[in-house]
Amino acid sequence: MPKGTxxxxxxxxxxxxxxxxxxNFPASIEEIVLSGTTTDNLSxxxxxxxxxxxxxxxxxxxxxxxxxxxxxxxxxxxxxQRVLISRAMCAxxxxxxxxxxxxxxxxxxxxxxxxILKDLNEKRNMTIVMVSHDIDRAMNYAKRVVKIKNxxxxxxxxxxxxxxxxxxxxx
Length: 171
Description:
By secondary structure, the chain is an alpha/beta fold.
């Protein structure tokens, strides 16, 4: 397996796969999004004006600003994902790493999440690395797809044409 080194010190925004704890978290949208600004300084207890303005802009961009005072647990799955993407965006302007960001979402909401990610990539020039089992939808949005099966890379292509043999849902 190829190995490499990371030369540039890049801040990373991370969105983990959804968990039960996330669904029941009692914080407001605004609190969660702002918490993304503390990723490089865990001892930070106050948010700067710049932190607040950046979070506000991101919440507006992802269409959650008007509901920012709502409790996270009261949101739909798609709204929760937009909040968590917003939080990850507060941590970086360069690189987002997402683990199954559309898992458990209905197809319409999943498409909206993919559209948001596409816009982040194209308009902000943000690099997005995403794990997904939704091969068909990922192919409509990704610039590059790598398929790994049993720890081995079995497909790696930049093209949007993606033809795999067998059932990809279990791969």
